Each structure stands twice: as structure tokens, then as C-alpha cells.
Amino acid sequence: MPEPLSSEPWVTRYGLRLLWITGGLIAIAALFSIAQRMTTVHHLSQALATATAENATVAATHAALQTQIVLATQGANLDEHVRDATGMIRPGDEVLAPVPVGTLPSRATPPSPSPELQPQQPWRVWWRLFFGPLP
């Protein structure tokens, strides 16, 4: 014979199982949420480390550029001192060089003109470069 239907309510009959299943589902959802938040924290900490390294690089570049600016602005006053100490000249300056007495060339003899070079055919130039004089 089939068992008669129980007169006890379904909550009493399935209550403990239902409680365990609901608790398990809530625990799984909480674990997924925690894992997602840990992944987000990991990505954000990596982004923070990258941004910190880039910030340090930019700060070092900024400090180097500030140093170059200071040296460049101080160099404007240094220019005259360096030119006087080393004898360097600027374009447009007149250069006066002392010459010992008796070493001046005679102005009576004009310089001899250089003979004009005859244009050569390009193959002859290459022949001389690779093989020597023409036969």
C-alpha cells in the first residue's frame, strides 16, 4: 500500500534541506563577490604601481629639465667670461692676431694663379681610382 500523505507541513519536512541549500547558494555568491573584488583590487594595485613609476620618471625628467634651464640662464653671463678666457670669437667680430716683426710676407710678389683643371670624363676618373693610370 502506498504511504499516506504526511500531515506535517512542508516547512518542517524540507526546512532543514532548504536552509542548507539557501545558505550554500548565499555562500557561493559571497565567494564570487569576494573573488571579483580581489581581482579588482589586484588590477588597481598594478595600475597604481605603473602610475607611480611613470610619475617618478616624469619627476626625474622635470628635475633634469629644471637643472638645464638654470644652467642655460646662468650661461648667458658665463658667455663673456669664456670668450675672454679662451679667445673664442663670435661671427662678426674682428680678429687681431699679433705677428712678430720681420715675418710679414713681401707684398711685391703677387701669388701665382693656380692652373685651371680640365674637366675629365667620369669613366676615366673611376678607371684611375680602381686600376691606376690609363694604359
Task: Describe this structure as you would to a colleague.
- The structure is a single chain.
- The protein has 135 residues and is an all-alpha fold.
- The chain is built from two helices and no strands.
- The protein is elongated, with a radius of gyration of 48 Å.
- The mean pLDDT is 80.
Strands, helices and their partners?
Layout: H1 10-86, H2 122-131
- The end-to-end distance, rounded to whole angstroms, is 131 Å
Shape: elongated
| Low-pLDDT segments | none
Order of helices and strands: HH
* Number of alpha- plus pi-helical segments: 2
Number of strands: 0
Q: Quick check: average pLDDT?
A: 80
Q: In percent, how much strand structure appears in the residues?
A: under 5%
* Main structural class: mainly alpha
Instruction: Using the CA coordinates, give the radius of gyration.
Output: 48 Å
Approximately how much helix is present in the residues?
55-70%
Short note summarizing the structure:
The protein is mostly helical and 135 residues long. The protein has helices spanning 10-86, 122-131.
